[in-house]
Design brief:
This protein has helices spanning about 15-25, 40-55, 80-100, 105-110, 140-150, 175-185, 205-225; strands at about 5, 10, 30-35, 60-65, 115-120, 130-135, 155-160, 190-195. By secondary structure, the protein is α/β, with parallel strands linked by helices. It has a single domain, classed as P-loop containing nucleotide triphosphate hydrolases (Rossmann fold, 3-Layer(aba) Sandwich). It has a 6-stranded parallel beta sheet with strand order 5-4-6-7-3-8, with helices on both faces. Strands 1-2 form a two-stranded antiparallel sheet.
Length: about 230
């Protein structure tokens, strides 16, 4: 990586897993970055997208995530489409603002060089010459994941990021991120990279919080009694 953030610091992988992740993005057309909050999966993907745009490897960046929290209510929210979806896509804007002149971003969005939209707006399209990032992919259904992956066009690259411990889907709906590995594990030019709490590069207390929750989940899952099945 050879990108300066807006504070003049070079963005680079800080852990071995992060380096594997960045290398995988260089080598493959599709990469899955799976790990906890703060592990760099989205931030580094956006950095690679900006690098690809600046070096003219692609002509546009497309950033998307499923608007699970809004669901079908998105159409009934007041305001323009941009105002409706902005809260769900704000983390992607934040990463962009750290790497590009904030004043240039609205212009790039206006001329289509950068597109930030909910996953539902990808349906029916073929995305050529683009660096495409699907964030929060744990909140896709298997059908949505397939829909997204099959949008890939010529000259494009995809990075899919998510945390399988943070699924917000309604009960009964499987996470597309959980099942995709079983389906695509043997596909070439596609790689899965796992990041862990050891890769969390936010404030130290964030890493401690992630580890504490992981321990809590492990203890409770092992201690949880099995449900009794009553005879009918």
């Amino acid at each position: 990586l050879n990108i300066l953030n807006t504070r003049g610091r070079t963005i680079r992988p800080k852990t071995l897993n992060q380096k594997h992740y960045v290398d995988a993005i260089d080598k493959n057309t599709i990469v899955f970055g799976i790990g906890p909050a703060g592990s760099g999966k989205t931030y580094l993907a956006v950095a690679k997208a900006v690098q690809a745009l600046q070096s003219k490897q692609v002509t546009r960046i497309i950033l998307t995530r499923p608007a699970v929290e809004a669901g079908a209510r998105l159409g009934f929210l007041p305001g323009t489409l941009h105002e409706k979806i902005d809260p769900y896509l704000r983390p992607l804007f934040d990463a962009l603002h750290d790497m590009m002149d904030p004043d240039s971003i609205p212009k790039l969005v206006a001329n289509g060089t950068i597109e930030i939209a909910p996953l539902a707006y990808m349906r029916g399209r073929t995305l050529n010459d683009a660096f495409i990032i699907l964030d929060e992919a744990q909140n896709t259904s298997p059908e949505q994941m397939k829909m997204f992956l099959t949008r890939l066009g010529f000259g494009s690259k995809m990075v899919i990021t998510g945390d399988i411990t943070q699924v917000d889907l309604p009960s009964g709906i499987k996470s597309g991120l959980k099942v995709v590995r079983e389906i695509l594990g043997k596909v070439v030019d596609l790689e899965f990279i796992e990041l862990t709490s050891e890769d969390v590069v936010r404030h130290k207390i964030v890493a401690d919080i992630v580890e504490a929750y992981e321990r809590f989940d492990e203890q409770n899952s092992s201690a949880r009694p099995r449900p009794l099945h009553k005879d009918r």
